[in-house]
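Narrative progress, year one. The postdoctoral researcher (J.K.) led the effort to move from monomer predictions toward full complexes, under supervision of the PI. The following entry was the first complex the group processed end to end, covering 476 residues in total.
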Amino acid sequence: MSIKSDQIADALIHDVLTARYRAGERLPSERDLVTRFDANRGAVREAMAKVAQLGLADVLPGGARVRERELASLDVIGYLLAQQELPDPSLVDQILVVINNLVSVAATQVLEHGSDETIKSLRDLLTPLMQQDSSTDAHNEARFSLMKNIMLASNNLPLQLIARTLFEQFAPNISAIGGHALPDRARYALYARQLDIALTNKDLPAMRATFDAFAELNRETMARAFMLAERGQEAIAQ
Amino acid sequence: MSIKSDQIADALIHDVLTARYRAGERLPSERDLVTRFDANRGAVREAMAKVAQLGLADVLPGGARVRERELASLDVIGYLLAQQELPDPSLVDQILVVINNLVSVAATQVLEHGSDETIKSLRDLLTPLMQQDSSTDAHNEARFSLMKNIMLASNNLPLQLIARTLFEQFAPNISAIGGHALPDRARYALYARQLDIALTNKDLPAMRATFDAFAELNRETMARAFMLAERGQEAIAQ
DNA sequence: ACTCGCCTCATGGTCCGACCAAAATGGACT
DNA sequence: AGTCCATTTTGGTCGGACCATGAGGCGAGT
């Protein structure tokens, strides 16, 4: 049994995100929610505060009103991914676009300001991607680890915060699909080698170009995983 | 007189951000904070919940402990900028790096998936940047407006959320130095014309290259504004 | 002297009932 | 139909209380 105020908050967030309450509409009053959730008003208030802090509603004397989704905090991404059984593929793709580009930015920062040891440690993370005989899970893990560590090595706090937020909200919601991922090991290995060379030579254009290709491959892999996952869902439904 | 729980939250956030309470340490208990702020425990709890939601502390039975800064939410950026009278220049530069790159990503999305009308509306926003006789404030405003609208036109929700968060936290804290900004109008006008051409021809490489130059100019402008602002501070101190 | 396990106490989570100021609402009056 | 005002509703705060759990200290055993 998790914390009650969080249960209430999750229910409210779900309702807002599924447009049960639309932008501009009033949310139920705290006292109404007390009866609906059979909880104390303090718990309801903490839930409302959480919803408000996520930027999903403006709560002020007279009532709480739902905000436009575009005005929310980045932290809602996780909730959006978790709304349906299977995350929205287009949203996942959008996240990948952002992540891939931020990784590229971070890598640029490392190449420009990072120490040789930092670059060396990142190159070490490429090794698992060159091996084509490891398990799929290990390969997925290696890719995540690479991107995460590049972000952390960037010494750019906003970058790190965005990356951590996206990764943390992404990972748990994508696990349902991850099993269907069939990474093109040969291409990943190729890009890993190219990245290794670019890092060694501090060749910025080459690195960015390789990252672009790497990003495209990531998106293709995820798109294919989604197709397989949906086929699996249909098979279950029959 | 703002809301009490927010006052408490702001004070706690300030203390955490200025390392009065360091990572791993315990935060004062809710009952201690009640006496310290002369507030009700409910208000203190809501403040603690806010701090926790910002990812600055983990609050669980037994006590609340401060988290590593890297584990915070992106929403702390605004508080970080507002800690001192003058924002941290290096943090501002980091934000600019991220924003500039995300704008570039967003523009790419628009060029790839956007309608001709969307592109046209963005091109209209370039006009003010080509005029070299407008006021500095108008020019600053025009740049902000351009970047914001590109982000919004991207149809990429995570991108929009990040952009809005960064812009909203950035703008109010940067106004103190905004007055010192002396944009290189000629260069901005040149890039605006180049962007206009690239958008018209849907020339992706040209657009990205121009955005890179645009980004560099933005950083230079901000760095110069900081130098002037600091000189102004010293003059006051004397 | 050290370690391990227990027991107490402090802490967070929840509940109840109450009051206040501000906003929303509805009706009376023009 | 439009305007103004009194009522009601709503969020914000307060005080006190209870419970389950984790923290921390104390003592028994080695």
